[in-house]
Amino acid sequence: MADRSNIVSWLTDMDGVLVHEGVALPGAAELIAKWQAEETPFLVLTNNSIYTPRDLSARLVSGGLNIPEKNIFTSALATAAFLDKQQPKGSAYVIGEAGLTTAMHEIGYVMTDQNPDYVVLGETRNFNFDMLTKAVRLIINGARFIATNPDATGPSADGVLPATGSVAALITKATGMEPYIVGKPNPMMFRSAMRKIGAHSESTAMIGDRMDTDVVAGIEAGLHTVLVRTGIADDAEIAKYPFRPTEILNSVADLL
């Protein structure tokens, strides 16, 4: 068993680790309750930029998880934190939902389609050809291109949906410009999250279900990495990669 004696704070992915299709996975509610009882600093991370932490907290309650909004960190918040450092009080043309627009408003950004500093693309089900055209033209005219996360597809009850990475690819094809991506697997998202809870990499562990985002970003950020098998990674998937997590568990119940 891996030594966790020095771990004092935790970052955990949400989908595939704590919840699946909106329902709490075995051990998830108990683990969150344990961290809260022991006053362990923790953040639940998600690359999904659709919802605000408050909305996500409410959705998780209905799935059986009691996670306060202060303990939720989305790629939208990470993107806003990045832009706030890069160009405080700037302007952006935003394609995204409330999770992203709220985060941008909170750092004092102006949303505009008139000569913005950035084009910011997040997860959305509600965009149209005009919005894509506008984004393409603004980027060609010098706006810098940012995407909240690289995920090409997302899950739904009916099967996969095209996600941020797919729309970004379309814009890249039209402009020749690649976006700077803030969410996982960019370790910057973990560093932002650790700053938010005052954590340090040498005493923080990260739980994820994906080798290609959670584990690689955790390794690059210098964290103790825990891969759980409740998401998409099985032995065949794990074997594909040239790196390994610190430990592999069946589910978060094994951390209790």
TrEMBL record:
GO terms for cellular component: cytoplasm. It holds the Pfam family Hydrolase_like. GO terms for molecular function: metal ion binding; phosphatase activity. InterPro entries: HAD-like_sf (IPR036412), HAD-SF_hydro_IIA (IPR006357), HAD_sf (IPR023214). Keywords: Carbohydrate metabolism, Hydrolase, Magnesium, Metal-binding. Its cofactor is Mg(2+). NCBIfam families: HAD-SF-IIA. This is HAD family hydrolase.
